[in-house]
Every structure is written in structure tokens, then in C-alpha cells.
Amino acid sequence: MGKAKAKAKQVKGHVKEAAGKATGDRGLQAEGRGEQVTGKAQETAHRAADEVRKRT
């Protein structure tokens, strides 16, 4: 998964979390927060891999 997809996952998660807050759906809020965390982790992994490639 590329950096753009990781960022898109974060945005999608943010939208889900906001929708969950607006509708009072705690499950949707939690799902959104989970997607944001997953997206951030993937983005961090890509940055680390890029840094390793630069140094080798």
C-alpha cells in the first residue's frame, strides 16, 4: 500500500468518525478512529522504508 492510500485511509477514518459523532453511532466513531490509526501506522512505515532506501 502506498503513501497516498495510507493518507486516504486516514481521511476516510476521519469522515467515519465525524459521521459517527453526528449520528451518535459509537461503533462508527470507533471504526473511524481505528482506520485513522491504521493509516498513520502505514504512513510511518512507508516513511521509514524510504529513509532506509535513501541511506543504502
Structure write-up:
This protein is 91% helix and 0% strand. The chain has two helices and no strands. It has helices at residues 3-23, 26-55. The relative contact order is 0.20. The model has no long low-confidence stretch (mean pLDDT 95).
End-to-end separation? 22 Å
3D shape: rod-shaped
**Beta-strand fraction estimate:** under 5%
Order of helices and strands: HH
* Radius of gyration from CA coordinates: 14 Å
Q: Percentage of helical residues? A: over 70%
Low-pLDDT stretches: none
Count of DSSP-assigned helices: 2
Major beta-sheet overview: none
Counted beta strands: 0
Main features:
56 residues, rod-shaped, mainly alpha, single chain
Short précis:
The chain is mainly α. 91% of the residues lie in helices and 0% in strands. The chain contains two helices and no strands.
SSE topology sketch:
Elements (H helix, E strand, L loop, with lengths): L2 H21 L2 H30 L1
